[in-house]
Amino acid sequence: MRRMRIAALLTAVLALAGTASVVPAATASAVAGPCDSAANWTAGTWYPAGTVVRYTDGRYYVAEHDNPGYDPVISTWYWDPYTCQGGGTPQPGGFPVSEDQFRQMFPNRNSFYSYGGLIAALGAYPGFANTGSAETRRQEAAAFLANVGHETGGLVYVVEQNTANYSHYCDRNQPYGCPAGQSAYYGRGPLQISWNFNYKAAGDALGIDLLNKPSLVQTDSAVAWKTALWYWNTQRGPGSMTPHEAMVNGRGFGETIRSINGAVECNGRNPAQVQSRVSNYQRFTGILGVAPGGNLYC
Q1: How many CB atoms sit inside 10 A of residue 215's CB?
Q2: Counting C-beta atoms within 10 Å of the first and last residue's C-beta, which end of the chain has fewer, N or C?
């Protein structure tokens, strides 16, 4: 309430001083088309809730609350990132990483790991990078991409490179066995899903027959991204929470490492691998313009 009263007083002062250009709601630049038609943000211009603007750094923001031209990067209560998806159409509450930022994060990526494939996969877990504050959403997106970048050498490798391991990932004790073959369940995709029981569980959750068709994870970009999102949002691994829970509950990036590969890397077991993940995360949060938060290591 206090912040709203201050905002109202500031609006009145700016208007009386002649420094604010108040635009009636009927003529405000609320955007429903491509991002290219969004107006450039201008300090001192009145923006009703729902208005989409292009900030000075080229990113888009939507007004979550009426405001007299507050800076979208500073006044995060009034503004939220507004992501262009699917051919440039802005999506409120969308994935907080633009295609240009994605390319910046992974300049040498394999074309299989397409931005379009990632966007197509997001519907499987709508809470991912879309829960909590704008800061939390950007941190989670950066954390996910930092880990998948580490697992795949910068989104270069689609399949596990050590072929000698391939035959190890069939647990014959499972009642469904390994119908695709003894050596069919090797690591694939952004988080290198492996083992027949993981393919079965991911496939059941996603409504895709990955037990019988594990190769889909290396031939369909959206399916590959979905398996990574399945693990991120539903699996605790060797940790005590899912990576999604770690980020939205403020437990920090270090807990995502623990949930993905903590038994091998955390508690001093492999500090170089942990540092690789942390360095990715710090770079990606920098690209997204958000602080990395605390508890980076495990």
Answers
A1: 14
A2: N
Using a 10 angstrom Cβ sphere, with 0-12 exposed, 13-18 middle and 19 or more buried, the burial of residue 41 is buried
Domain contains 61: yes
CA 122 vs. chain centroid, Å, equals: 9
Distances (CA, A) of 131 to 33, 153, 187, 240: 25, 28, 29, 20
Catalytic residues: 151
Domain that holds residue 42: 25-92
* Nearest-angstrom CA–CA distance, 255 and 266: 10
The torsion of the CA quartet 134, 296, 235, 115, rounded to 10 degrees, works out to 50
The reply to whether 68 falls in a domain is yes
- Which CATH number covers residue 81? 2.10.10
For residue 263, the tally of other CB atoms under 10 A from its CB is 12
Q: What pLDDT, in 10s, does the model give residues 69-90?
A: 898 878 877 877 776 544 344 4
Our count of domains for the chain comes to 1
pTM for the full model? 0.70
Q: Is residue 80 part of a domain?
A: yes
Q: In whole angstroms, how far apart are CA 212 and each of 189, 208, 218, 231?
A: 17, 9, 14, 19
pLDDT at 211 over 80: yes
What is the rounded (10 degree) CA torsion for 63, 67, 71, 75? -80
